[in-house]
TrEMBL record:
Upper lineage: Archaea, Methanobacteriati, Methanobacteriota, Stenosarchaea group, Halobacteria
Full protein name: Asparagine synthetase domain-containing protein
Domain Asparagine synthetase: 206-290
GO biological process: asparagine biosynthetic process
Organism: Haloferax prahovense (strain DSM 18310 / JCM 13924 / TL6)
One MF term in the entry's GO annotations: asparagine synthase (glutamine-hydrolyzing) activity
Domain of life: Archaea
Pfam families: Asn_synthase
Length: 569
């Protein structure tokens, strides 16, 4: 990978057996750790930074800012604050980052509050090996045993939840958490605590915070690009960022959403380019699958086949705007009429967390017919998912006070779309605006019924009254109800074109590329599964065989893993 954090806690010389120092930009040798960083943007304001003196060292990796009004470089600031207040110092940083500090014989690695980066670790006789590339971390482990629970989570939901991975010897940094040489734990930065509505105006606060979040990122180097759709999220960036040079939209030039995105780009004086996907839109190459990190599906890296068409140094995007600001994981109220479901305004008064989360992750009921053969404890995939979700709700119950926030919390902890972020950050200077600490704080202070599109649109209009001059093509009306009626009519009435995605039809492209024959020869039972599930099976099989030189897993192994599975002899 082009960008990496790697290290060994309680290092006994093993670092040099696992990595070449010359391949990194900066290496810190301390009493308790050896840690290295590689990042083409190292040293730019707001990007990865390093610091050391006679007391120890600090690395802040990713996109990170010191508090407003502080001119001290981020790593130096974090080091001095850690010396003063310990792990509370990490709550003062802002952005999408990992931080390492070694000071006076103590060493710790911590995530940002929303864990927008995954950092993996394994314990060896020579110390705890950790890093952002799980395949390098796994190279230090021996006797790899597959975590069948984690593998089943991946296959049936599309995500491996919490700190688990598909290997029992490989763990992920806890959500809102940290680890040291011999323990791991959580901090208290991501806790739902609604503010007094008389003192916290949701629209005004969101508008001001959006403005500051984008302004913090307005001076990144080089040609500035944004991945722009015709919807709401990414247009907030181009409307506020004063220096966007070019907008990229995935699709065909004549698709309505691409046309709207082109109009938005013209409205704000930026160039527009259409990323026209070809038959490689479904990318099953190992160099794309690696960005799944063995915990998420690579299908979310929508633009992976279009990187050669993008000529930008810094790339912005609207990832997780819908999650933090518009209630992506919140269960919407619906009414059933003659077998059809009509969305209503407001939230479902009696949601089932497992049902909501499974639909937002990647569950497909077609998995159920194979499940009884795989795991004796449960009869169906949904029984398994119920168990997984209940376990998580119990574990994190001290961070929420209502069922809606519980669903949002588990969804955010296990966000399935982050491979999109991992791939972009490895190939560009990627800016993750939604991870701004002020926007996360708004999410935690705003009640679930106010975390919706209407609130966000009102905030965006405060920043720019003309921001919705060009409406999203699938939301032509101001009225939520009118939009839902039109969507229904377009789906049901012959001769009227339904709203559609600008992206290629995945099932049609899968068949056209004959991927059953290429990926699963000799596995006719897998051919019967939905395309997304088949791609998921290929993802994890490919990733695990690449991660372990001795691994020879088959698609059947990952679909129905034995209770105990060793990947090496």
């Amino acid at each position: 990978m082009n960008k990496e954090l790697f290290g060994v806690l309680d290092d006994d010389g093993v670092f040099d057996d696992l990595a070449s120092r010359s391949s990194f930009d900066w290496v810190a040798d301390g009493e308790r750790a050896t840690v290295a960083i590689r990042d083409p943007a190292l040293g730019f304001p707001g990007r990865s930074s390093t610091y050391r003196d006679e007391r120890g060292s600090c690395i802040v990796w990713g996109e990170a800012f010191s508090p407003d009004g502080v001119s001290t470089p981020t790593a130096e600031y974090a080091f001095e604050r850690y010396a003063a207040v310990g792990v509370d110092a990490f709550g003062e940083l802002n952005g999408s980052f990992l931080v390492f500090v070694e000071l006076d014989g103590d060493a710790v690695v911590a995530s940002d509050p929303a864990r927008t980066w995954q950092c993996f670790y394994t314990d060896t006789p020579d110390g705890r090996v950790f890093g952002t590339n799980p395949q390098r971390v796994l190279s230090a482990a021996t006797g790899l045993e597959v975590d069948t629970r984690g593998l089943l989570e991946y296959i049936h939901m599309g995500v491996v939840v919490d700190e688990r991975t598909v290997y029992s010897r490989l763990s992920c940094i806890p959500f809102d958490g940290y680890f040291t040489a011999d323990e791991s734990g959580t901090l208290s930065r991501f806790v739902y605590d609604p503010a007094d509505p008389d003192e916290f105006d949701y629209v005004d606060e969101l508008a001001a915070r959006l403005e500051r979040a984008i302004a913090r990122r307005a001076n990144f180097p080089g040609k500035q690009g944004v991945l722009l759709s015709g919807g709401y999220d990414s247009r907030a960036i181009i409307a506020q960022h004063p220096g966007i040079d070019v907008c990229y939209t995935l699709g065909t030039p004549d698709h309505p959403e691409v046309e709207v995105a082109r109009n938005i780009a013209n409205q704000y004086g930026a160039d527009h380019e259409t990323l026209v996907p070809d038959d490689d839109y479904i990318n099953v190459e190992e160099d794309v699958i690696e960005y799944s990190l063995g915990t998420r599906e690579s299908v979310h890296v929508h633009h992976a086949g279009c990187d050669e068409q993008m000529d930008a140094d810094t790339v912005f995007h609207g990832l997780l705007f819908d999650t933090f600001l518009r209630g992506h994981f919140l269960p919407q109220n619906v009414v059933e009429v003659f077998g059809n479901r009509f969305p209503l305004q407001g939230l479902d008064p009696d949601p089932d967390p497992a049902e909501v989360l499974s639909s937002k992750f990647g569950y497909h009921p077609a998995c159920d017919h194979v499940f009884p053969e795989c795991y004796d404890e449960f009869d169906t995939s949904m029984e398994f998912i119920d168990d997984v979700v209940d376990e998580q709700l119990d574990k994190w119950s001290d961070r929420y006070d209502n069922v809606y926030d519980s669903i949002e919390l588990i969804g955010i902890q296990n966000q399935p779309s982050v491979p999109f972020h991992f791939e972009l950050s490895d190939n560009y200077i990627e800016s993750f605006v939604a991870a701004d600490a002020e926007l996360i704080d708004w999410h935690l202070k705003t009640p679930p019924e106010k975390r919706n599109t209407n609130t966000m649109m009102a905030a965006m209009r405060k920043l720019n009254p003309d921001i919705f001059r060009h409406r999203p093509p699938d939301r032509p009306h101001d009225s939520f109800r009118k939009n839902q009626i039109e969507k229904f009519v377009r789906r049901k009435v012959p001769g009227i074109e339904p709203f559609s995605s600008p992206w290629p039809d995945m099932e049609a492209q899968y068949d056209r590329n004959e991927l059953d024959r290429k990926l699963f020869p000799g596995y006719p039972s897998i051919h019967e599964l939905p395309v997304r599930v088949k791609l998921r099976i290929n993802d994890i099989t490919t990733w695990m065989n690449a991660a372990d030189d001795d691994s020879v897993l088959t698609p059947n192994d990952v679909l129905c893993p034995p209770v105990r599975m060793l990947t090496d002899s």
